[in-house]
Amino acid sequence: MKIVKCFPNSSDNTFCLQASVLSVLDYYFPNKFLEGEVIKSTDYHPKFFSWCPRTVVWLDQLGLYVKLYSIGDYERIETEGLKYLKELKEQYFELEKKRGDYKYLPEIKVAISEMRNKNLWVKESLSVEKLRDELKGEQTLAIGKTVWEWLGGRYIEGPTHFVTVVKEYSPMVWLVQDPGGPTHIPNRKVNQYINNETIFPGDIILIKGKK
C-alpha cells in the first residue's frame, strides 16, 4: 500500500512543484530531505513558478529512475528561447511573460541541456492508460501538471499547478496529493478527464523507484 504524505503550497501558490517533490522524496527517502534543500535543488525562486527540468535532473542524481514526458519541445526552448515560446504559447505568451514565467529562462536552459544530455526527457505525452499501468507499481509515483481549478471540475484558464499522482483510486479517478491553492488537500480524488481531455495534458514526471 502506498502511503504518501501531502505537503502544502506557499501562500502565493508558486511552491506546488516543490511541495510535490517533497511528497516524492518523503516516500523514497523518509525524513531525509528538508524544504530548504528542495528549494535550492529545484531552482525555486519565491513568487515565481518553477519549470520541471532542474527537478528531473536532481531526482536522477539522487538515484531515482525518472523521466519527463512532454510534447513541449524542450530542444527548441533551449536553442530558440523566447522566439519558440512565443510561437508555442500564442495568446498566453504576453500574460506569462508579464507574470515573470520567463525571468529565469537562462537558468532553465542550462537545466534543459543537462536533462537532454542525460536522456531524461521523452518527447511524447504519457497517456491516461499508460499512467494507470505504471502507477500500479508500489515503487512508482508521478508528478502531473494541470490547472488547480480543473481538479474540482471547473474547466477554466488558470496558472499551472502540480500534484503528486499516487494511483488510480477507482475507475476513471486518480488519487493525488494536492498541495492546494494554498490549502493542501491530502488524498484528493479527482477525475482523470475533464472536457473529454486528460486532466494532466502537460508535463508528467514519472518516478519508478530507486536505481
Shape: globular
Order of strands, main sheet, comes to 2-1-9-3-4-5-6
Biggest beta sheet summary: 7 strands, mixed
- Assigned CATH superfamily of the domain at 16-70 and 120-210: Cysteine proteinases
Strand content: 15-25%
Kindly state the number of beta strands.
9
> Alpha-carbon distance between the termini?
20 Å
In terms of per-residue confidence, which ranges show pLDDT below 50 for 5 or more consecutive residues? none
Structural summary, described in words:
The strands form two sheets. This protein has a seven-stranded mixed sheet. With 211 residues, the chain is an alpha+beta fold. It is globular. It has helices at 16-28, 35-41, 53-61, 74-80, 82-89, 93-99, 105-117, 128-134, 148-151, and strands at residues 64-69, 121-122, 141-147, 160-170, 173-178, 185-191, 193-194, 197-198, 204-210. The chain has a domain at 16-70 and 120-210: Alpha-Beta Complex (Cathepsin B, Chain A). β7 (193-194) and β8 form a beta hairpin. The chain is built from nine helices and nine strands.
Task: Outline the fold blueprint.
Elements: H1 16-28, H2 35-41, H3 53-61, E1 64-69, H4 74-80, H5 82-89, H6 93-99, H7 105-117, E2 121-122, H8 128-134, E3 141-147, H9 148-151, E4 160-170, E5 173-178, E6 185-191, E7 193-194, E8 197-198, E9 204-210
Helix pairs in contact: 3-7, 4-7
